Amino acid sequence: MSSDLALDTALQHTGLAPFDPHTDAAPVAVPIMRTSTVRFRNLDALDRAQADKADPEKRSVTYGRSGMDTHAALEQVFCQLESATQALLAPSGMAAITLGLLALLDSGDHVLIADSAYGPVRYLEKTVLRRMGIQATFCAPTPEEMARHLQDNTRMVYVESPGSLLMQMLDMPALAEFGRQHNLLLVTDNTWGSGYIYRPLELGFDVSIVAGTKYVAGHSDLMLGAVMSTDPAINKRLHDNHYALGFSISADDAWLALRGARTLPIRMRESAANALAVCQFLDSRPEVSRIYHPAWPQDPGHALWQRDCTGSNGMLSVQLRLNNAQARVFVDALTLFGIGFSWGGFESLVQLVDTSFLGGHSYWEQSQDSLVRLHIGLESTKDLCADLAQAFEKAAQA
Ligand SMILES: *Cc1c(COP(=O)(O)O)cnc(C)c1O
């Protein structure tokens, strides 16, 4: 795909089905190619495919685990989104993170992990990495703080920008510079940007990981992860480990994600505009002490967001002058926000964040306030704000 096309255009013209050589026709929607098994016309054809398998760029398939045309089309879309040369699919965002860490770290290595990264990464560290002899330090995601925790065996910086729960924007080019100075692999969780509004590989990172479960799939109906890079040596290592670990996703899920990706631009733009409208409403409320959303001008990360991002999305957190019991009444009173984890779908969601968990986040300033995370979906903001207003009234009466 020509690189001077706008991403919105390229997204509609990537991963298309090829023309049939006999009919010169092709389906506009790539078919769902379900198969566990690949058959070959003769042994020479099989031998050629086997020989090509060592080269990730050839995407040679001899068996269904790595998927055929539907998977390949979705991989091309992820490459397009992230400016990557390789994308590997995983059965969930968490599986993609696991692949990135296990493929690129050896026993005896040390990794610096942003203390604002997705919570379950701490569980992965405790349950798996430690047992594999991989050491980790969770610290504030700035070059200065990370430099203080460098060890002789430090191999990787793992971050997420903006960070989970508090949407802390990181200075990615500065972190990339720090990583290069110390010969560290730079890995980031880019689920927030999903390649569309934030492109860490262009900002100097080596590996970008996306939970396709969220905005790429976009309809809250499947689990998916992807790991992207441009570096040939990293690509080879990710590719070989992906194969060895046996990760596989169904062609149906690949097809649904591909379908979702075609409308990613309009869904993300609409959620982002709706989120800003909700921020404006929240800002007018006496219960609100702080809004966490990088596109909101008062957010401390706003300048970094303006410099490094091309858009925003529907994620925001709001700090409320409510005690825990009042915050529970507030959340329970909402009728248009589903109480649930996840985000990036068509619908609005709410989550009451356990602030004791935020003790490990250097960005959190200790407070008696409550923290509520919202995902703003595609509903009318007039209805969403009315719903929030009536829930505030109920919380005040509690
Ligand atoms: C949801 C999420 C993940 C994990 O994705 P799953 O598909 O749910 O495993 C990883 N990182 C971030 C930032 C997420 O929000």
TrEMBL record:
Named cofactor requirement(s): pyridoxal 5'-phosphate
Record keywords: Lyase, Pyridoxal phosphate
Keyword Coiled coil: no
GO biological process, one term: L-cysteine catabolic process to pyruvate
UniProt xrefs under InterPro entries: Cys/Met-Metab_PyrdxlP-dep_enz (IPR000277), Cys_b_lyase_bac (IPR006233), Cys_met_metab_PP (IPR054542), PyrdxlP-dep_Trfase (IPR015424), PyrdxlP-dep_Trfase_major (IPR015421), PyrdxlP-dep_Trfase_small (IPR015422)
Entry annotated with the keyword Lyase: yes
Protein name: Cystathionine beta-lyase
Native species: Alcaligenes faecalis
Top-level taxonomy: Bacteria, Pseudomonadati, Pseudomonadota, Betaproteobacteria, Burkholderiales
Gene responsible for this protein: metC
